[in-house]
Automatic annotation (TrEMBL):
Residues 739-749 have a biased composition (Basic and acidic residues). This is Kinesin family protein. GO terms for cellular component: kinesin complex; microtubule; nucleus. Residues 518-528 have a biased composition (Polar residues). The keyword ATP-binding applies. Residues 50-71, 506-529, 709-749 are annotated as: Disordered. It comes from Talaromyces proteolyticus. GO terms for biological process: microtubule-based movement. Belongs to the TRAFAC class myosin-kinesin ATPase superfamily. Kinesin family.
């Protein structure tokens, strides 16, 4: 085999990649190891490697993957990692040797985000590494311990009522539009008395599972407060990490915000938001299989107003924790919400990618205005869902669909990890991390920001711990290792030599040849020389064949790399196109705005000119025009006018009488008789009732006119009501004239 591949430079790689091998768990597995059935072997540290100055530690970094002895002839693969942890490695060793302490240091003192994630086939030990077991703490718990120990003298609690402005000031300066809770409120609503909880502000908080690491049951009922202390005592206290405590400025003030979310089917869900519904008797229950999907709103990973240069998960719930115990309670709550299902490969398989975030914020007081802001960095711990083969996992329906999404997102992650070698070689090819939510969340913070306001922000430090079971599924493990390894080398196995087989058969001693019954050996149909010549020919062809197989394997790798590059370029072109479109759009909007302003100015000027013109015209007109008003008539004139009208009405009445008499011969009035009062009209026949009504209306109009329009003591009194039409109409001659017209021509009546 050729010299082992060198791991990529650790200074420029986006992720440090470690491999951890899972020990056998069952007796059967242990027996298989004894029989040498493992296909994954750790390469011993070679002298040349340990002499290398940059790699002076004597830990293994390479493994070989020996394909199983099936009918297919597959190449032996060799992979390189930053370091390989063998089966016997303990949690503390992994914590210390992966540089978790330096990741925490970056968050506390260097202004650098940190990220640790586990990647592996389902059941290979990811959750064990990240979350630990009932007796051993995982990376998360140890990180929390180191962090809270380091901040013990400077940390602030949101439950400290001396400063009620803490939560509002945290909320105001949080760039992710988060809802921020104090730990006490949050934990009370979960572990408090149910009756108290229902009164609490956060009434519908989800319950938690009973035991750390919370991977055993979903149906745990509401947990009363009296169990809280027992639960805290049950948390594993080992390994001890007190020796890793960091020093921070004792005059500073810090807060720690804990948030949790999961990526499920390429959507982000808050794990600290309730997904439970109140059931009968006030007990919180799950609605069934995928009820969470219905209740929880997917969150966006986006740039916000306060964070224009980097994307954040917007709208999360965040809990201010001031101690290890508080943070553990929040962690348990979130884990309880996470989707976990039993599959054929693992009884408690994670069906989503879980993110646990610890934001350490430092108080910053503006010297000029005394304003308080909180800024800091985040340590993110990621427990990725395991890749699996549907056949092995025996999944179906929704779980199978989940597996498809999990495998797809892991494939994208693998592509990004492979591309990081190009990135670190100075190649500007973009790592194609925008292909899914998972890679966006893991990589978007890995690059130096080009935004003007964020020149101080460093790219994150990231660690990937790849877990593998040396007795597990060969194909799935090989795929994960291919994705994640820092370097890979393929060696084509030598096919057992046909020549040697033939030659050995040709050189079979005559004693071993079958003999006939008469003692003679069976003759060969070809001579030994012919056979040797044929064997040599076969050797030559076999060698050619091996070279071709090797070339094919290399071509295959080159093709995969070319495909990845193509994808990356496509992504880059899409980005460039998007940028150009945005630029064009911005330019067009700017021009439109300019044009709009120009038109607005011209329009305003035109309106001003028009108004000026109109004013001038009005001035001219008002200068030359005098308004003539009719003089008020004197009382005598009005009396004359009314009398004239009276006469006119009487003559009209007379005309009407005549008309009635002419139409009704049986009721002829006496000759020469006249009607002097409207009341006399009632004596007329039924046929004249219309006329009578007309007279009454005339009288009413006049009275009404007098009531509404007379001046001085014009209030309508009973006496005034008896005023004759003549007297009433004297007050309003013009109106009466108008009514005269209303009555219409005489002949119509
Ligand atoms: N280093 C280890 N030492 C002891 N036991 C381990 C170790 N790694 C894993 N295990 C055990 O193996 C089993 C499966 O591990 P775990 O649940 O961590 O797998 P996983 O990769 O997280 O699976 P999934 O992706 O399905 O969630 C568990 O019972 C765990 O306790």
């Amino acid at each position: 085999m050729n010299p082992p591949p060198k791991p990529a430079s650790s200074q420029t790689s986006l992720f440090q990649v470690y491999l951890r091998l899972r020990p056998p768990i069952t007796k059967e597995e242990a027996a298989n190891v004894q029989r040498g059935e493992r296909y994954l072997n750790v390469e011993p540290v070679v002298a040349a490697e340990s002499q290398d100055e940059s790699l002076q530690d004597s830990h293994p970094k390479h493994i070989t993957l020996q394909p199983p002895n099936d009918s297919r002839k597959r190449a032996v693969e060799k992979f390189a990692f930053t370091r390989v942890f063998e089966e016997e490695s303990k949690q503390l060793e992994v914590f210390e040797s992966t540089g978790m302490a330096s990741l925490i240091d970056g968050v506390l003192r260097e202004g650098r985000d940190g990220l640790v994630a586990t990647l592996g086939v389902t059941g290979s030990g990811k959750s064990h590494t990240i979350l630990g077991s009932k007796s051993q703490r995982g990376m998360t718990q140890m990180s929390l311990d180191v962090l809270f120990r380091s901040l013990s003298s400077t940390i602030r609690s949101a439950d400290n009522f001396e400063d009620p402005s803490l939560l509002p000031s945290l909320s105001a300066t949080d760039p992710s539009e988060a809802q921020i809770f104090s730990a006490r409120n949050f934990i009370d609503s979960i572990y408090g008395d149910p009756s108290e909880r229902s009164r609490a502000s956060r009434a519908q908080t989800p319950m938690s599972r009973a035991q750390t690491p919370m991977l055993d049951s979903f149906q745990t009922p509401v947990i009363p407060r009296r169990h809280l202390n027992q639960r805290l005592a049950a948390l594993p206290g080992t390994p001890d990490v007190s020796h890793l405590t960091k020093l921070v400025d004792p005059d500073s003030e810090h807060v720690v915000l804990v948030s949790m979310y999961e990526v499920y089917n390429d959507r982000i869900f808050d794990l600290l938001s309730p997904s439970l519904v109140p059931g009968p008797g006030g007990v919180m229950t799950r609605q069934g299989g995928n009820s969470q999907r219905d209740r929880r709103r997917p969150l966006l990973f986006k740039s916000t107003e306060a964070s224009p240069d980097r994307k954040v998960v917007a709208g999360l719930r965040k809990v201010v924790c001031s101690s290890y115990e508080e943070a553990m309670m929040v962690l348990e709550t979130g884990l309880n919400e996470r989707r976990i299902a039993g599959t054929g490969s693992n009884n408690v398989s994670s069906r989503s990618h879980g993110f646990f975030c610890l934001e350490v914020k430092k108080k910053v007081k503006s010297r000029r205005y005394g304003e308080v802001t909180w800024a800091g960095n985040t340590l993110t711990v990621v427990d990725l869902a395991g890749s699996e083969r549907a056949r092995n996992a025996k999944t179906a329906g929704a779980t199978l669909a989940e597996a498809g999404k999990i495998n797809e997102s892991l494939m994208y992650l693998g592509q990004c990890l492979q591309m990081q070698s190009y990135f670190q070689d100075g190649n500007k090819t973009v790592v194609p991390y925008r292909q899914c939510k998972l890679t966006e969340l893991l990589f978007s913070n890995s690059f130096p920001s080009s935004h003007l306001t964020s020149h101080n922000r460093h790219p994150q430090k990231a660690i990937m711990i790849v877990t593998a079971d040396p007795l597990g599924d060969f194909n799935a493990t090989s795929q994960i290792l291919r994705y994640s390894a820092l370097a890979r080398e393929v060696t084509v196995p030598r096919i057992p030599s046909v020549t040697s087989t033939i030659l050995s058969s040709s050189s079979i001693s005559s004693q071993s040849r079958p003999q006939t019954s008469n003692g003679r050996t069976t003759p060969y149909s070809a001579s030994t020389e012919d056979l040797e010549e044929a064997a040599r020919e076969i050797v030559r062809i076999t060698d050619d064949c091996e070279v071709l197989i090797l070339k094919l394997a290399e071509e295959e790798i080159a093709r995969q790399e070319a495909e990845l590059k193509l994808k990356a370029f496509e992504e880059k072109f899409t980005l460039i196109e998007q940028e150009i479109r945005e630029e064009c759009w911005a330019e067009m909007e700017e021009r439109m705005e300019e044009e709009r302003k120009r038109w607005q100015t011209a329009w305003d000027q035109q309106i001003g000119r028009n108004e000026e013109h109109l004013d001038k015209k009005l001035e001219l007109v008002s200068r030359d025009i005098k308004i003539y008003e009719d003089p008020e008539p004197t009382p005598d004139e009005r009396v004359d006018e009314l009398e004239r009208e009276n006469e006119y009405l009487y003559s009209k009445i007379a005309a009407l009488e005549r008309q009635i008499n002419a139409q009704s011969p049986t009721h002829k009035p006496k000759a020469g008789s006249t009607i002097h009062d409207t009341s006399e009209l009632s004596l007329l026949s039924n046929e004249s009732s219309d006329l009578e009504n007309a007279f009454q209306k005339i009288g009413t109009f006049k009275l009404a006119d007098q009531y509404h329009h007379s001046t001085g003591s014009t209030k309508l009194t009973p006496k005034a009501a008896k005023v004759t039409p003549t007297a009433a109409s004297a007050k309003k001659p013009r109106r009466v004239t108008a009514r005269k017209r209303d009555l219409g021509p005489e002949e119509d009546l």
